[in-house]
Amino acid sequence: MQISIILERFINFFAKNSWIAIVWTLVILAVCTWPGKDIPDPPFPNFDKLVHGGMFVVWSVLWLLSYPAKSKLIIILGMSYGLGIEFYQQILPFDRTFDWWDAVADSVGVLLGFGFKTLILDRYLQRLY
Fold first, then answer.
1. Domains of the chain, residue spans
2. Which residues are within 8 A (CB) of 5 and not within 5 positions of it... i.e. 6 or more apart?
3. Which of 28, 19, 24, 26 is nearest to 82 (CA)?
4. CA dist 83 to 80, 89, 117, Å?
5. What's 43's DSSP letter?
6. Residue-by-residue DSSP string for 67-126
7. What is the dihedral of CA 65, 125, 52, 20, to 10 degrees?
């Protein structure tokens, strides 16, 4: 089977199953709720910013595949979700704190996900048809 057919099926699977985006949204919440003392030491400084950004790249792509006509709303919701999680972490009773740079990393992740979906996946699918 050609790689393009596999990739197209993969993209269509995620586009037709919005429950995956919902589950990923909950995974992010669970990861960000995890007690800070139980998180392993990062392999290098600011590694957590990379993790935050990466989680939100995936979040953005999953939601944009499911609802391509709602890109502006998804971008706003993604950035708001990232910021909301930081406020949520501030009120947690265990070793988690608000960090503006985490919120920035989340927002950058949302925008990178939008760029990847728009500039790579959409263009790829256009070439197939």
1. 3-128
2. none
3. 28
4. 5, 10, 22
5. S
6. -GGGHHHHHHHHHHHHHHHHHHHHHSSSS----HHHHHHHHHHHHHHHHIIIIIIHHHHH
7. 30
Kindly give, in sequence order, each residue whose CB lies less than 8 Å from that of residue 18, ignoring residues fewer than 6 positions away. 63, 66, 67
Q: Among 14, 19, 116, 115, which residue's Cα sits nearest to residue 65?
A: 14
- Residue 82 burial (C-beta neighbours within 10 Å; 0-12, 13-18, 19+): buried
The values of phi and psi at residue 97, to 5°, are -140, 160
Stated pTM of the model: 0.90
pLDDT in tens, 10-32: 999 999 999 999 999 999 999 99
Give the alpha-carbon dihedral of 72, 76, 81, 82, to 10 degrees: 110
Q: Are 109 and 56 in contact (CB under 8 A)?
A: yes
Give the pLDDT band (50/70/90) at residue 129.
low
- Integer-rounded Cα Rg, in Å, for the chain is 16
